[in-house]
Write a structure and sequence with these properties.
Radius of gyration: 21 Å
Oligomer: single chain
Largest sheet: 9 strands, mixed
Number of helices: 11
Strand order of the largest sheet: 1-2-3-4-5-6-7-8-9
Bound molecules: iron/sulfur cluster
Helix content: 25-40%
């Protein structure tokens, strides 16, 4: 599917051929933003009703179903926001959410009530001043995580300005970006963007969000290689999604592609309780079985940590199935083939 401009409306979805029957989609678009870049549109197969790329980006009527356990702020950002644009959930790090727009709008997004044209917008100059002042005043903050929205939608000039202000804060040692841009709009990643990402002079990390092996196109590989070659440390972020990657072959291929492209597998998120996303959620039992199967199948380099963000703002918990049980120096441990052993051994 060839599109030359981003798709942002139901009419454009129909015109591009990504949707044939738009009945009811106006109601979805009224609640949740639509955004599909040309790079993503090119990956969608509209003739396949089970296409994993379409599932991630093309709106469906299933989004109008909100279950009782879903909530507008599923991971409790607002509970830990001392000033606009800052989330301070853990002592040594903060989120800095300078912008609430994205190049694409993922149908499973955990911040779907906050992002998009009707979302929380971009921080004003005064709000950004207050956010930077908060970071400067709290010398326990070692790491600043730019997220959003997608921080790489900012121009290199705007990003450079923010980075230069962080450069002056001595106690901040790490600046981390969470972004989908290298995959969904790889042409944005150029020498100017890389220079801006590194302009704080701190150690720069960038979490590349990808959920399916098909997202590794020649263009996205080029963008990721440019970041890696420039010395930006790359880690992965994926969401375990029904109909997209909830099978061991797809997950194994995805994690191996991260490693092959110099992106260290980091988090595989259990999907959050965001409104209208129940059709994406797998059970935790299924997620544990999948990550256990990965252990027996691919290199240790390619193992992600399976993570649940506890609703209410209580932070992240590792939820991979435990392989050890017991106490008092007598444990039973399960190996990668599912066979149990005593530790320490009796013989
Ligand atoms: S890029 Fe991230 S913040 Fe934006 S819609 Fe997708 S998941 Fe949500």
């Amino acid at each position: 599917m060839t599109a030359h401009r981003p798709i942002k409306s139901v009419a454009e979805l129909v015109a591009s051929g990504l949707v044939s029957d738009a009945t009811g989609l106006g109601a979805v678009a009224a609640k949740y933003a639509i955004g599909i870049t040309p790079a993503v549109a090119a990956l969608i197969d509209p003739t396949n009703p089970d296409d994993p790329m379409a599932h991630q980006f093309v709106p469906t009527l299933a989004e109008l179903v909100t279950t009782p356990d879903e909530r507008a702020d599923p991971i409790g950002d607002l509970t830990h926001s001392p000033v606009e644009g800052i989330v301070h959930r853990y002592p040594d790090r903060v989120l800095l959410k300078a912008v609430h727009v994205c190049p694409v709008y993922c149908r499973f997004c955990f911040r779907r009530e906050m992002v998009g044209p009707q979302g929380l917008g971009t921080l004003t100059g005064v709000e950004l001043d207050a956010a930077i002042a908060y970071i400067a005043e709290h010398d326990e903050i070692w790491e600043v995580i730019l997220t959003g929205g997608d921080p790489l939608v900012l121009s290199p000039r705007r990003l450079m300005q923010i980075m230069q202000r962080l450069a002056g804060i001595e106690h901040v040692k790490i600046v981390r970006f969470h972004t989908r841009v290298p995959v969904v709009e790889p042409e944005r990643v150029d020498a100017d963007m890389v220079a801006a990402l590194k302009a704080s002079g701190k150690t720069t990390y960038l979490a590349v969000h990808a959920n399916h092996p098909r997202e590794f196109t020649p263009e996205s590989r080029r963008a990721i290689a440019l970041l890696a070659d420039s010395g930006v440390a790359l880690i992965s972020q994926s969401v375990l999604l029904k109909g997209v990657n909830n099978d061991v072959e797809t997950l194994a291929a995805l994690m191996k592609l991260f490693v092959e492209n110099r992106v260290q597998p980091y988090y595989l998120h259990h999907p959050d309780l965001a409104p209208g996303t129940s059709h994406f959620r797998v059970s935790i039992d299924e997620g544990q079985a999948l990550v256990t199967a990965l252990r027996g199948r691919i290199s240790g380099l390619a193992q992600p940590t399976y993570i649940l963000d506890i609703p209410g703002g209580h932070g992240k918990a590792e939820i991979g199935a435990s392989v050890i049980s017991g106490s008092d120096g007598c444990f039973t441990v399960r190996d990668w083939q599912g066979v149990t052993h005593q530790y320490p051994p009796k013989d």
